Amino acid sequence: MAQAYGAQFASIYNTQWSGFARRMAPRIERFYRGLPRSVRRHRTLLDLCCGSGQLAVYFLRQGFDVTALDLSGPMLDLAKENVRDHITNSSATFVQADAARFKLDKSHGLVVATYNALNHLPDLDYLRSCFGSVAEATVSGGYFIFDLYTRWGFRRWNDISIMDTGDTFSLQRGIYDGGSRAQTLFTGFIRDGEQFTRFEESIYNTVFELTSVQQLLAQTGWGSAYFARSDDLAEPISEPEHEDRVWIVAKR
Description:
Layout lengths: L6 H11 L1 H15 L3 H4 L3 E5 L5 H8 L3 E6 L2 H11 L8 E5 L11 E6 L10 H13 L1 E12 L1 H4 L4 E6 L3 E9 L4 E12 L2 E12 L3 H10 L4 E5 L16 E7 L1
Parallel strand pairs: 1-2, 1-4, 2-3, 4-5
Antiparallel strand pairs: 5-11, 6-7, 7-8, 8-9, 10-11
């Protein structure tokens, strides 16, 4: 099963780390807008591993109907709160489910998973199951766009960083020994009224070989897939393992 984050970590993610989704949302929407009309007429988005909903907010503003899926109840609660004022002519549906095993009642033109969310799946079997579940939730000709940290990127993982905002103090330590798994340890304190509550969270990441990722996509119903950088999702790159983070653009 994928990891489900607790309330304290979700709160910190919402205030400190949600900028990644905000930065990528316009680039993804711009790529989708450039696709043939037969594809982009499906203004339905599945925000897979939606976190606290910042990417969902952007697409709701663009008139998409959004399904936001996450395993973490606290993350979904924050996502509901964040999108509340942005539902006008669009609709938002929230689903608590495992990204590796889910089934939805409707199909989507675009599925997105950001901030190396799928690195948190424990192995290739879970990744295969995720790709199959996403394929079933995507219209024919629709797109699945997600990013992964590469082995090269994880080599830079071993580091310690400290954050102190006044309301939150946290220490983050990355651990990677060159194998198939990396770990990030979070510990610290978050303000709760007049007091501070201590929290701990361990996040595990799996190092997926990108050739295996492409093979799994082909095996689970995806007609094509290529690797790209964040600044140009329409331009395939030839050496994805040399990137710290790579984007995968798959067509159903």
